[in-house]
Amino acid sequence: MRIVVADESPMFTRGLSLLLPAVSDRAVEVAASTDDAAAAAAVVRRSAPDLALISLGLTEPGGMRAIAATHRAEPQVPILAMSPADDTADGVAALRHGASGYLRKTTEPEELVSALLAVVDGWAVVPPAVLQALLRATDHPGCGDQRSLGPEERELWRLVASGRTTLGIAEQLHVSERTAKRLVASLLRRLRVASRTEAAVLAGATGLLDEDEARGA
Prior knowledge:
This protein is an alpha/beta fold.
């Protein structure tokens, strides 16, 4: 796995460059890095990594802007946000700006490798407090228009909630990748959520995935 690191501390980035290959048996390497929030999206585009690791502590325009810009420029590249503080609001905001996961910078290297692999595989890495905040934000009758979704839209929602990539969704639905991207964007608007992670949380809160298990039983 090749990752790009956008972090305000060159020492932290250097540490990751040394530690990640060592603790992952060289399965993870830092392909490029920057300490400039404004340059993060360009570095990701130029490096074509498997994942971008972006710190919320980046100086102006800041880590949130870097996440949003990177997500807009390279939506197929998952983003893991890292914060020097344990701030639930920052975690929720990072997810809504396009991150697929959120961790503290004090996370042990072995745990970080597991999180990186999970995010690349399509999973969201969310601390319990952030997950609870997302559940509170989505667990009310006025959140989204999920009750009026048709069978095809609910199937798309299940695919998003299960961590499928845009390409995986396109293949499952037998449509182009561009069409799949448009369908997902439309679904997020219907659900009134800002990210796939929130859509997955809402799916869990409304029992959408339980319906699959019940049918399988």
